[in-house]
Amino acid sequence: MPLKPQGEQVVDFKAASIADAHHFAHEAMATVFELYIVEEDESYARGGAQAAFAEVDRLEMEMSRFIENSDIARLNSALPGEVVEVGMEVFDCLGRAVEIFEQTGGAFDISVGALYECWLNEDKTVRRPSADEVASARELTGMNHLKLDTESFGVEVLTEGLQLDLGGIGKGFAAEKVAGILREWSLNQALVLAGASSVLSVSVPNGMSGWPIRLSNPSKPSEVLARFELTKGALSGSGRQKGQHIIDPREAEAGPVEGRLAAWSMAPDAVAADALSTAFMLLDPQEIDDYCLANPQTAAIILPHAVSGESQRPEVLRFGQWHQIDTQNDKLKSTTKP
């Protein structure tokens, strides 16, 4: 499974065009959460932002596999048959992870940690594991190794050594919680950014047609692939930095795959957008097209890797309904019928 980009701007919000928005930022979950809030009373907006950021910190304490005694850390150390009681938020997040795992045929899998480590040395360079090593790692992969009890919020671990990582979905989950708190504070005219990869519209400010967004080639930031206005829902992007590797949990025996340079997804909520941008790095074009057709509020843009010897960048593909995207100079090729 690919990693969310760190330090690469795959989603760019043109903040300078929103003169009336108050800006607040907070470091958490190995990234920076930013809020743009349109509100006359700056002190009140700041109070709402602080409450929202406090919730992000609380979620990180429960969801990070790197924090000792977090819900995820306890699941990762659980013995077979052990039932671990987790918080409602972690339980809900795991439930969404299972849902999207099934929808994407396993392309999005938060349990891919064992397979990922199997193919890498300690310095993260690629190694060639034995067939037995790959088989053992595969036995530790898959959401079928968890059993969720909706009555007790308990999670039963069915396999010892399961390694869960919510990195591909946790920021989107936190963004939705942030949006919920802003609504409780009646700070509806707001935008939530979870690092350089995810954007969630709480609501569009009065007098605006949407939040101005642009998507850029992560390997060449000056190259803008699309411009549009986000009115509702969320947008997320996944990319790969130099030296990173992608493991497709569905075809682990093949080892690291080339995948795509970047993938973006639009969805009704930030959880789905976050997870789908990860899955879209691996799914083939027909699978992405089928998913978007089955989920009409979902859309995708894919930037493939250039083929060796090409003098021009590869053709960008889009899926689903992107009517608001600026396709000037025919930069985007639609894969859907008009």
Written overview of the protein:
The relative contact order is 0.16. The protein contains 8 helices and 15 strands. The chain has helices spanning 42-63, 71-76, 88-103, 113-118, 131-138, 170-184, 270-279, 285-294, and strands spanning 12-13, 21-28, 31-38, 83-85, 146-149, 154-157, 190-194, 198-201, 211-217, 220-230, 233-239, 260-267, 299-304, 316-319, 332-334. β7 (190-194) and β8 form a beta hairpin. The longest helix is centred in the first third of the chain and has 22 residues, at 42-63. It has 338 residues and is α+β, with helices and mostly antiparallel strands.
Annotation keywords:
338 residues, alpha+beta, nine-stranded mixed beta sheet, three-stranded antiparallel beta sheet, 28% helix, globular
